[in-house]
Amino acid sequence: MGKLDFIYKRHSVRKFKDEEIPMEDIKEIIKAATYAPSGKNQQNWHFVIVKNKEKIEEMAKIVEKKNAELASSTDDEKKKKSMTKFLKYHTVFRNAPMVVLVFAGPYPSTGIDILEEKGATQEELNAVLLPNPGIQNVAAAMENLQLAAANLGYGTCWMTGPNYASKEITEYIGFNKEGYFLAAMTPLGVPEESKLTSPPRKPVEEVLTIIE
């Protein structure tokens, strides 16, 4: 057993057994998510869990409808094909026993107010906003969530593809928290397959720069 084996247990899982997850495990997984690092300790995240199978299926249909609507609104066949090509991946959550919707809330980027006060250009403002620390907080929480779930024997799949239907999904589930928007979602359940794999990763040497 390696020291970091809990990291390598996480895989993108898209097929699940029809088994419920005990509420005790759900709360432990969400608790782990909330222990992610958070700039200014804003903890600008909120987790909505949908367990009702009919509602999960309806969310998948909402994504299908929005996908078709967007695809039909362009005459560019290449764009149309690109829009519909990945639809099956945008709806894989439909066969999971539950779906976790991760919402992101407001986050004040350091220095923006001063830059605006001194009349900074939009380019200067964009340069500071580009790293989007508020989303980084939520992404860190999602990673914690997935690592915790994998360590307990559950499968997840980080999904942002369905975000083009985020407004419709949010309205459908009836979630309303001022300033919050749907950032990502993940199905959560017991993997159907016993042997899980992940695509190869780039060599460390390719993505690592050391400055001495």
User: Which parts are unreliable, with pLDDT below 50 for 5 consecutive residues or more?
Assistant: none
* CATH homology superfamily name: NADH Oxidase
Strand line-up in the sheet with most strands: 1-2-4-3
Order of helices and strands: HHEHHHEHHHEHEH
Determine the N-to-C terminus distance: 32 Å
> Got a strand count?
4
Strand content: 5-15%
- Biggest sheet character: 4 strands, antiparallel
In CATH, the topology is named NADH Oxidase
Can you describe what's shown?
The chain is globular. Helix 2 packs antiparallel against helix 8, helix 3 packs antiparallel against helix 4 and helix 3 packs antiparallel against helix 9. Strands 1-2-4-3 form a four-stranded antiparallel β-sheet, with helices on both faces. The chain has ten helices and four strands; from the N terminus they run ααβαααβαααβαβα. The protein has one domain: NADH Oxidase, CATH 3.40.109. The protein has 212 residues and is an alpha+beta fold. GO terms for molecular function: oxidoreductase activity. This is Nitroreductase.
Question: TL;DR of this structure?
Answer:
The protein is 44% helix and 11% strand. With 212 residues, the chain is of the alpha+beta class.
What are its keywords?
212 residues; alpha+beta; NADH Oxidase; 4-stranded antiparallel beta sheet; 44% helix; globular
